[in-house]
Amino acid sequence: MKEKIEEKLRAAFGDGIVSVVDFKGELAVEVKRDRIVEVCKFLKEDPELDFSYLSDVCGADMMNFEDASSRKAYLAIEHEHRPEQVPIEERFLVVYQLTSFKNKAKLRLKVKVDGDNPVCPSVTSVHKAADWYERESYDMYGITFEGHPDLRRIYMPEEFEYSPLRKDFPLMGIPGSIPLPRK
Amino acid sequence: MATLSEEKQNVSSTGSFGQILKALEDKDTNVIMEDPLENYMVLNMGPQHPATHGVLRLLIKLDGETVVDCLPDLGYLHRGYEKIAEASTYFEFIPHTDRLDYISPLANNVAYVLAVEKIAGVEAPPRAQYIRVMAAELARISSHLMAIGSMALDVGAITVFLWAFREREKLYDVFDLLTGVRFTTSYTRIGGVAQDITDETKQAIKKFLDEFPKNLDEMKRMLNRNRIFLGRTVGIGVIDGKTAVEIGFSGPNLRASGVDYDVRTFSPYLVYDQLSFDVITEKNGDCFSRYMVRMREMEESVKLVLQALEKIPQGPIKVDMPKQVLPKKERVYTKMEELIHDFVIVNDGVHPPVGDCYVATEGSKGELGFYIISDGSGQPWRLKIRSPSFCNLQALPILLKGQMISDIVAIIGSIDPIMGEADK
After folding, report:
1. B353 and B118 Cβ atoms separated by less than 8 Å
2. CB of B369 within 8 Å of any CB in chain A?
3. So what's the pLDDT on residue B293?
4. Do A24 and B357 touch (CB under 8 A)?
């Protein structure tokens, strides 16, 4: 099944597919950012593959991922020790977990998103379920999903300015960032 | 008589008011008006509302008593567990999983350690796997009892709620024997479980399972043909299979719409492939189907636990991998090497290889998945919780559209959201 998925994707999208990794028995395909909607649509509508169920969409901040020793520096606990915002290319990952009921298979798609201008096409036109998942990623990482019908924060209050799951957001939070309710 | 009809004619010539009056006189007609007051009423429900099962807030747009639109507002219980996970070791995060779906903490414990074990390349010994299956299935019974009890309470049947809680109380006594605590269990460990199942516990489980089907039948007799209950649930909040898949439904809710997606058979984990059970589906996709799926699933869970009790093998409850798995406590106190390992594992943790993996399990609410990105250190680089309650709640506006205001509580009860899980 895995070979078939890879073969079909490569045949249909050519260099739109960046890499295919099989780790711990799970297939992960990295896709170019502007092709993700097409790839999702293809996977959903191809009668043999039938990846019609979107289990999850999540973001991830891969800032300085390779350099694990610097990790502690970025896990700043207090506000004063917060590192400077370091915009890097391809800082964020957006990960899609797809499920095919017909083939009893799971597939992971990944898209790299720029750190300076985090924009990613929305897959809500293909999978309705992506609505809230993308709102969550927008809330937690500040990734803007283009074409999303209702892109608002989902957990944090609308006035909140930061993206709490970014690596440069301190674990303790930022004092005063959440306003207390007026009396 | 003549004057009345004359008046009627006069009134009807004045336009819409005349129409209304005419319709009121003629009892058999219904008049459908294009928004007579030219505005809708917006009703705020929650976050402090007993029928929202926690802190769910809904903004409901009403046309009279009919729901036109609904906007769920989440985040009142957001505690940032995904951020906490990035700052704690893999072991330290186990107690936090109890607080996700606090109705069935054991199922979360199992799901989380399965994800860590997969990425770290650890496999629990068979005895531990059987214990985990039992724990997860008992948690499912406990969760479904809560779901049915509170749903029945929401539509007015208080007795069933009390009966369900009586059964849950017995279950908590079993959990007490099994794990040492009643609520926040933190029972599983990476590579096994915290403590072995004793004969006393086995007997307690057996005793519970012997009595439970009879008590469940009582509850069924109370509800299955209860006219009020049927009137409140049949044909209410209907969602068809295709829409349910598209919107991300999972678990009992999806199976009530006729889609037989159950992670236990879809990609069997633990020892589910060695146990026999049926995947319960219903066709109608309404509140009553969702209730029936839960009722029937509890019977399957009873079957599963009974089989597991019979088949459980002897052997260790933790795998022998000293670099990844915590040693026995009594050995930590007496042996130097184990003390060092205990210290290193607790402070630094398991070091899975660099990579990522997603493990889905069938939690009591649906597909409960953990996605871990590891950077090779003792703490996860990213831990994403795919919480079924969050995904199920997304369908709420679809389910509510066109329903009566009094059905809102029945529909919320039937999709069984737990806000601790939905808000993370």
Report:
1. no
2. yes
3. 92
4. yes
